[in-house]
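Recall that a protein's primary structure is simply its ordered list of amino acids. Everything else, from secondary elements to tertiary packing, is in principle encoded there. The following example makes that idea concrete.
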Amino acid sequence: MTIEATWLAASGASACDLRNETATWRADLDAPAGDPSLPNPHDLLDSALAACTTLTLQVYAKRKGYDLREVHVSVRHEEAPGTYKMIRTVRIDGELPPNVREDLLRVANKCPVHKSLSAQISIETTLTA
């Protein structure tokens, strides 16, 4: 699936519109230059990991019949020259013995976005008129 981002100078705003084949959303710069109600690009990246972790745990627990009642995932990041460190905290609620909790942690670390972000990533860019 391809993500497209569009910005128009005539809009008078810094926000860009994003879309794929099935959904639309927006992103902006950090305040004060942008709209503080919209996520910035780093928020979008961090939210991809949080969402993928949450959804992966939900599906896995349902398939395994685990008594998982709630999943809460928070992701924050720290940046330094040449590094981007994501700090993820997973909280799960339910009647879950220690071995099931360990299994869920293992699965959280195998969600597709986690695997992608942990891999070597290359970006190929072309400029068109």
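The helical segments are 41-64, 98-108, 112-118. Residues 76 and 87 are 5 Å apart (CA to CA).
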